[in-house]
Amino acid sequence: MILLLVPLQLVLFFLKVGAQSGNTTYDIAAFYWPGYHPELRFKDIHIFPDGKGEWEAIYKAKPKFADEEVPKVPLWGYEDESDPKAMEKKIATAVKYGVNVMIFDWYWYDNRPFLEGALNDGFLKASNTHDMRFCLMWANHDMPAYLDPADPDKSKIYWRGGVDRKTFEGMIKHIINDYFKKENYYTINGEPVFSIYELSTFINGMGGAPQAKEALDYFRRETIKAGFPGLHLQSILWGNVPSGLAGVPSDHAQTQNTTLNYFGFKSMTNYQWVHFVSPGTDYLDWGKKAIGHWAEWDKTFDIPYCPQVSIGWDNNPRFPTEKQPFVKNIKPEYFQYYLQQAKDYIDGHPNQPKLITINAWNEWAEGSMLEPEKKYGFGYLEAVRKVFLKR
Description:
It comes from Olivibacter ginsenosidimutans. This is Glycoside hydrolase family 99-like domain-containing protein. The chain is of the alpha/beta class. Helix content is 35%, strand content 14%. The protein is built from 13 helices and twelve strands. The chain has helices at residues 2-18, 41-44, 55-59, 84-96, 117-123, 165-180, 199-206, 209-225, 256-263, 283-291, 294-300, 332-347, 379-388, and strands spanning 27-32, 101-109, 112-114, 133-138, 143-144, 157-159, 187-188, 191-196, 232-236, 267-269, 308-310, 355-359. The longest helix has 17 residues, at 2-18. Mean pLDDT is 92; it is low at 1-6 and 14-23.
């Protein structure tokens, strides 16, 4: 029955799209994985000896399933994203097709940055950098060996993602001075937007919920001191947002909602559908289950949910010998269908930020990317343009 219903849904969808026009008043933000440049710290953990970052895992990948489309081949080749010229092309292309914000995955390990080259040397030094806004998602997870295709022990941890208060204060000084103060840093109501990927990891690093709250309050005060009206904290909503807080007497409800309210988050989004819907299925079914949560979150959370759409999932390039489940039957027109659902959600919530997030601009090793590739060319970007730009 599902197989019969899906085509009818798509027919109705394309009739609807053909009868309406998009506009440019939406903030369409793509997550950016900055792993495709010669990062010096890769040498510290002895990975990617070719010096091209995770491109090495992509061009060496081989299919392990009969119907798996690996390797994905970038239309632009294996470019160095820390080269301003390469980033200029990415910015110009993104903006042309309606992607106007880039959310950089941002890392801080052993009290120093990791993978900042794409942002500092590429994006911010590009001649057209002010054509696009950017913000940071602190990817504060442990850094395990899954990034290294050559290491069979995926449980190995290179660096821990949790930080203590002293480290956090030094980190946010860098964030405020070197990023928030950029003219094209993305804000909502004048407040710099900063996302936290793993809230539990942050809490544990701080030594508990009260200490973590104090640290975030400090972050807000420092942001205001820097001349901003406040700080827009955005949560990445998934299982790493705890539903109960030890050491907080007032936390009786034991829900993720009370947790986010306690810390003062102002909005939430997702990073990837795989975080709450298992792969190993057809894309249309995967997406239907994912967006099925939106109505539930709308009722159970006090802060606004900014809808997120994923393009796909296949992280087999990071596991050369072990088969990983992946999402099948991914096509630009199916992605376009779910982008339209996200637009409809935003249109139905006029009092919240008109922000939609996409996974991702370039998650090549996870099979989810807007960047042009050889099979569909600019197809996924065309899907964005058709939904959000005037025709």
